[in-house]
Design brief:
Structural class: alpha+beta
Order of helices and strands: HHEEEEEEHHHHH
Helix content: 40-55%
Shape: elongated
Largest sheet: 3 strands, antiparallel
Number of domains: 2
Distance between the termini: 32 Å
Strand order of the largest sheet: 1-2-3
């Protein structure tokens, strides 16, 4: 498999690629005195094994494909470039923060659920700058479902005219729709691909 073919795969597809099919950069494409650059897994983590010419011979090391660094309390992700053997700031697809673009209640509930139950998926999505993007999609997806359920409930159980009965009806409708939305649309370990299929 070529490096270009590798980059076109989704994260899920990349995880399924057998070790023997992981990409290797052809020597003629290498820069910065590199003589060898091949992707390989160490302890289940994808990275690159490179060999570089140095004054007293050659140096071979393995580098994880991604690494993070905290700067002034903010986390930045870097991606390894297997052609030149250096890390570059991963700016592709940066998503707006919650302060820049607030996330509603369903999205925040999904975030809390994912962080507690699926931290490995959260880390992977954050790595690729799409965790908050998926949370916003969950918010929209769940809200649309709530609107549909509200209409269906009103069609099956017409709203009473008596004030006291109307209050009970509203409470019952809200209880039904909220619980159904949370159970069927929010407390689910979405990834971007899964969410796209359900939209």
């Amino acid at each position: 498999m070529t490096y270009e073919e590798w980059k076109d795969l989704t994260e899920e597809q990349q995880e399924q690629v057998p070790d023997e099919e992981l990409p290797e950069i052809p020597p003629e494409q290498l820069e910065n005195k590199l003589t060898y650059s091949k992707m390989m897994r160490q302890y289940g983590v994808l990275g690159w094994k490179i060999t570089q010419k140095v004054p007293n011979g050659e140096n071979t090391r393995w580098f994880p494909e991604y690494m993070s660094k905290m700067v002034s309390g903010e986390e930045f992700w870097y991606q390894f470039d297997p052609i030149c053997g250096l890390y570059h700031l991963n700016l592709v697809g940066l998503e707006p923060s919650m302060e820049e673009e607030p996330i509603g209640g369903y999205g925040r509930r999904w975030i809390a659920f994912m962080e507690e139950q699926y931290p490995h998926l959260v880390e992977l999505m954050r790595l690729h700058n799409k965790f908050l993007t998926v949370a916003r999609a969950v918010e929209e997806y769940a809200f649309r479902y709530k609107q549909l359920l509200d209409k269906e409930y009103a069609a099956c159980y017409p709203r009473p005219k008596d004030f006291e009965e109307c209050l009970k009806w509203e409470k019952a409708r809200r209880f039904y729709t909220e619980n159904t939305v949370i159970r069927e649309r929010v407390l689910i370990p979405y990834t971007e691909d899964i969410l796209d299929k359900n939209s």
